[in-house]
Amino acid sequence: MDQPEAYGRKSDIWSLACTLVQMINEKKQNKAVQMRKINLVMPIILGKALTSRIEKLSNGIQKQQNKDMGVRKLILD
Q1: pLDDT in the model for residue 26
Q2: Alpha carbon distances (Å) from 14 to 9, 28, 50, 61
Q3: How many helices and strands in the chain, by DSSP H and E?
Q4: Which InterPro entries does its entry note (predicted)?
Q5: Where are the alpha helices (DSSP H) in 1-77?
Q6: DSSP conformational letter for 2
Q7: Which 8-state DSSP code applies to residue 8?
Q8: pLDDT tier at 69 (50, 70, 90 boundaries)?
């Protein structure tokens, strides 16, 4: 048996229009929100990366200085 459709062509068009409006508005909003998040998070990430790199360099310099001091002690002794 054929059952009548609950919704017609007008409601399909209305639904499609509502969906398109939501998609357009959300993309703009999401893009703006994403950019704000990037602007807030990037300095934190870069700060951590730079701090980590500085610590590695500092440790490397300290190891080299300790090595040089050991060589000097051997030469002087």
Answers
A1: 67
A2: 9, 22, 53, 68
A3: 1, 0
A4: Kinase-like_dom_sf
A5: 9-76
A6: P
A7: -
A8: confident
Place of tokens 């090595």: 67
Which amino acid is it at 19? T
Q: How many residues does the chain have?
A: 77
End-to-end Cα distance, the chain:
106
Instruction: List strand residue ranges (DSSP E) for the chain, in order.
Output: none
Q: How many CB atoms lie within 10 A of CB 74?
A: 8
Contacts of 63 (CB under 8 A, 6+ apart): none
Tokens matching residue 37: 């998040």
What is this structure's pTM?
0.39
- What CA–CA distance (Å, rounded) separates 70 from 63? 11
Residue 18 has pLDDT above 60, yes or no: yes
